[in-house]
Amino acid sequence: LYLRELKTLVDGVIPVLLSQVVNGDNATELFGSAAPTTKTDAVSKSVVHMGVALEKLRMAHHKAPVSDIRRLASWGHGVVPIYHKYLDAWRLGFQDLVVNLAPAVGSPEDEDSLIGAMPRNESGDIIDSTGERVDVAHLLKRPVLRLKQMAKFFKCVDSIIATNDTYDLLRDFEDLQEKARRRHREEMARLTDEDAINTDTT
Fold first, then answer.
1. Residue 170 CB neighbour total at 10 angstroms
2. pLDDT digits (tens, 9 = 90+) for 118-170
3. Is 80 exposed, middle or buried (0-12, 13-18, 19+ CB in 10 A)?
């Protein structure tokens, strides 16, 4: 499922967000009411950097040696800096932007690389296991949440192999988890500040 989520982000979500920024379409809907140019520029850079990191994550996870625990531990060291880059770029604020994977008009479904990537409703909107529509914010948070699972996994690996290498790897992922918690606090504070500015009537 995670690989399909990454595929949807790389091939579907990020290109759409970038096109909105480049064309200047619906900037207010994407980045908030009366979004100043400086804010739009900052978000557009974040989208670009998220896209680069997500593409690297997709490639890395696709090549993960899942059948060899020792090689997997070595692989883990390689994804640590990629997750750091993603956390640096990750932003909240894309709630209520629903992801739609309906094929383009006139394009056969079998030519669309995203068809089948994620469950969809009859309108083409991505849905979760309960049938609820999934927004962009939900998908962008998936790599952040994945870190918790990976930290637990490498904790088990360290308990089995117990080498200096696996110990260092576990510390790296625990550091990533702490960074993820800090970034979430920062993003929540940023959104709170922006909401306060937008609702200031003085």
1. 21
2. 777 777 778 777 878 888 888 999 999 999 999 999 999 999 999 999 999 99
3. middle
DSSP secondary structure string for all residues of 134-150: PBHHHHHHHHHHHHHHH
Distances (CA, A) of 132 to 16, 97, 126, 128: 21, 13, 8, 6
Query: If you average pLDDT over each of 2-6, 92-96, 132-136, 171-175, which comes out highest?
Result: 171-175
Which pLDDT tens digit goes with each residue over 22-74? 665 554 455 554 455 566 677 788 899 999 999 999 999 999 999 999 899 99
**Residue 170 has which token pair?**
């576990």
Q: What is the pTM of this model?
A: 0.84
Q: Say how many CA atoms lie within 13 Å of 83 toward its Cβ.
A: 27
Burial of 126 (0-12, 13-18, 19+ CB in 10 A): buried
